[in-house]
Amino acid sequence: MTSCVEEVDRWWRVMAVVPLSLRVASGASTSTSLDWPRHLAARRTAARSRRALRARTRADAGAGTDDVLAHIVRTIRSAKAAGSDPDFFELLGVQVGTDPEDIKKSYRERARVCHPDVAGSEGHEACVVLNEAYATLMDDELREAYQVERTFGSLGFQGSGDALRDLYDILGDTDIGRALRRTPYTGEPLSKVVGRDHFACKIETDEQAAKAVFVDELSCVGCERCFRSNPAVFRMEGTGRARVFGQWLTDEESIQIAIDTCPVDCIHWVPKEQLAPLEYVMQHVLRDRAVFGKSPGDVFAKTATFIAAIQKATETENNL
C-alpha cells in the first residue's frame, strides 16, 4: 500500500508538470506551478496591508470620538466636584441661540459616541446628562428657564424669562449683549477657586477671602514674570499673555511678589464678587474685539456696565 507521504509527493509532481506542459504548448510563461507559494505569500502580504490600513483608518476616526467622550465626562465630573451642574450648551457643543436642528444634529453625534454599547460605563454616565441637556435645550420654556438660572443663579435670584429678556433689552446690540447670546454667563469664575477647607487654599483671613487676583490680559505684554515668579497662580495663555489659573493657591506674600514683578501693572486685586463678571467680559467680549482689530476698551468700565445691567434686570423682576 502506498504511504500517505508518497501520495502527497506524487500529487505535487503532477501539479508541477501538467501546468508547465500546458503553458509551454500555449506559448505562455514557463514558470512552474511551484511558483504558487510566492504568489500566495504576495497575496497574503497585500491582504495584511489592506487590513492594517483599515485598522489605522478606524483608529484615526475613533481618536476624535474618544476626545469628545473624554471632554464630556471631564465636564460632567468637574461640575459635580464643584457642586454645580454642567453647562448644557458646552456639553452639546452649541451656543446660545443655536438653531434647534443644529442642536439635534450635535446631540446625535455625541449620543453615538457616548452610547453605552460603544463607551461602556463612562458612556452611560455621559448619555444620562446629554439626554437631560438635549431635552432642556430643545424645549423653548425649559431653555429659557435654564438660561435664567445660569445667568442669575449665582446672585441668589429666582425669576422668570422676563429677567433675561430685560437684561437683553438693557444691553441691546452691544458687544456684551451679543456675547451673552453666544455664551451664557454662569456667574462662576473662569479661574480655579477652591474652598477655604481645601488643602491647597492658602486663605488665612476673612479680608483675604473677600478679594481675588485678576489679570488685565489686554494690557499684558507677555513678559512671563508673574508666571515665573508664581506658576501655581499664573499661567501663560496661547495668546502669549498671562492669566490667573487658580485663586489663592499660594500665600498672599507670594502672590504680591508676582504682582510687583509686572512691568505694566496689569495684575490687580479685585473684590471677589467682581471676579466672575470681569473674567467673563475679558474672555468673551474684549478679547474677541482685539482679535478682530477693534478697540477693546477698558475691561473695568465694561464690567461695571455688565454688573449694573444684571442688577437692574434683577431689581425689575423682584419688583413685579
From TrEMBL:
Organism: Chloropicon roscoffensis
Xref: Pfam families: DnaJ, Fer4_13
Domain J: 87-172
Domain annotation 4Fe-4S ferredoxin-type: ranges: 211-239
Organism taxonomic ancestry: Eukaryota, Viridiplantae, Chlorophyta, Chloropicophyceae, Chloropicales
The protein, known as: J domain-containing protein
